[in-house]
Amino acid sequence: MNKIVWILISLLFLTGCADIKEVQYQAYAVGLGIDYNDNQYEVTLQFLDFLNVAKTDQGKGDKPSKVWLGNGKGKSIEDAINQIDQGIQLPINFDQINVIVFGKSLLKNKLESTLQTLDSSYRIRLTGMVYGTEEPIEKVFTSKVPFYYPFNESQISNPEAKQQQSSTVPPINLQQFIYQFNEKARTILLPSLTVNNEIIKEEEDNYDVPTINGAHIIKGKHWKGHVSLNHLIGFVRVNNKSVRTPLTLDLANHQILVNLLKPKMKYVVNNDKKDPSIGLEIKIHATVLNSNGMKLSKDIKNQIKKKLVNEVYHSYEKSKEIDGDIFQFENYLYRHRHDLWQSIGEGDFPELKKDNIHIKIDRFKSVHKLSGMYQ
């Protein structure tokens, strides 16, 4: 009898799973977009249909994946999210957010306060990849992924995978962005998104896809401007996070295709406080994929070096035009040559000269088309 009484009493204290929500009865936010216009925040949440999330484990579907958006406005980000909360009908799950997009107006006017809000929010994880855009955020979030894959399989959701094949502006997550934003001498390259409808077609119909078109430059907690991918190509090729970039050479009426691989960039600093100078030493691997019958030669190697020097210097100049420092010279001196950094007056920071950019091609090979063997 006593056992039965104790069992009945213990059942009263068992909470069970009554409050657990089934996974399909939640609204999964996978994208967060924030802009600032007319003195109020504009928040866009991108939701993915639960059925489409499940399909990624079983393969893609045979119809386009639907994207649901929630739009809210308010004096604060939380006010705007609460507005979406009132209309979405289901509890919002923020755990799956892997893309965060900031509009240009927010980057120029409200970036610092926005980062403070996101850093202190208990709902938003700091692992999502961060981008800037001049496009309407809705247009970015309703762009497509070919072959009917859901948006969370896109290049901007998984940028590291694409970096292995063809590197672009290095991706950055929200945690890294917040850390770098608060560093004194750091210049941030925030990857910039656009929507392109000229690259991919579904049969004869244009297909909107998200692509990287450059970077927003942020320094000293201020937006400095935008630099296009064409102007950043020198930086993209030689920064230490790059994996592979293609390079085309025109030599003796031949077009030569080269893969540049695994660059290692090192700073060279003259410590003379009266006449400091900065430079770059870059080691890189080069593999010739198509030489049109031309044999590997010093001419090809020298042309690669010459083109890289010109592209690196061009990227540096374009960054400098808007007071950016994409090669992080100031950050390097601040961390590793602090006494020299302190001795340099404002506006007197040494400039990079083209003669101080040195390229060493560490491994220079070609690949035979039929055998796949290195030569």
Automatic annotation (TrEMBL):
A Pfam family annotated for this chain is Spore_GerAC_N
Q: Superkingdom of the source?
A: Bacteria
InterPro entries, per the entry: GerAC_N, Spore_GerAC-like, Spore_GerAC-like_C, Spore_GerAC_C_sf
Q: Which residues form the Spore germination GerAC-like C-terminal domain?
A: 213-360
User: Which residue intervals define the domain Spore germination protein N-terminal in the entry?
Assistant: 19-194
Q: What is its main location?
A: membrane
Family, per entry? Belongs to the GerABKC lipoprotein family.
Protein name, entry field: Ger(X)C family germination protein
Q: Which organism encodes this protein?
A: Metabacillus niabensis
